[in-house]
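In the design runs reported in the main text, the only information available to the sequence generator was the tokenized backbone. The following block is the verbatim input for one such run; it is reproduced so that readers can re-run the procedure and compare outputs position by position.
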């Protein structure tokens, strides 16, 4: 019971840190490039994909488990990346009939996101 409670606490703490980092990055991106396009969410999701790929290479994914994985993957990176924001922002672009930007946001997140996971994995020797 104690171990399970500790796992939950690690995810909560990591998620809080990841969420605060997400807010900082999205505000930075909006200040730098404007808020008309969801640049911050794109940066967050791609860097989070790179991070989880690298983490997976280090911890022998898919056999990873334990406190470190819960804190970093489920907590920090789970709180940092955001499929829900990406989805809502894409829907908003579609509702505004900004078809090209909606398509660009979708393709610019999903394809590079999968590539970033692979790159993170490869950079840390996951394919060796």
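Verbatim output:
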């Amino acid at each position: 019971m104690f171990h399970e409670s500790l796992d939950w606490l690690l995810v909560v703490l990591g998620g809080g840190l990841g969420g605060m980092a997400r807010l900082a990055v999205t505000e930075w991106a909006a200040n730098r490039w404007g808020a008309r396009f969801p640049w911050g969410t794109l940066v967050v999701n791609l860097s989070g994909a790179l991070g989880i790929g690298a983490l997976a290479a280090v911890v022998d994914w898919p056999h990873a488990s334990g406190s470190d994985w819960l804190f970093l993957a489920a907590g920090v990176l789970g709180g940092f990346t955001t499929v829900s924001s990406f989805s809502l922002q894409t829907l908003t672009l579609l509702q505004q009939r900004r078809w090209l930007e909606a398509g660009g946001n979708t393709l610019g997140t999903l394809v590079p996101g999968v590539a970033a996971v692979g790159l993170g994995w490869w950079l840390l020797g996951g394919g060796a």
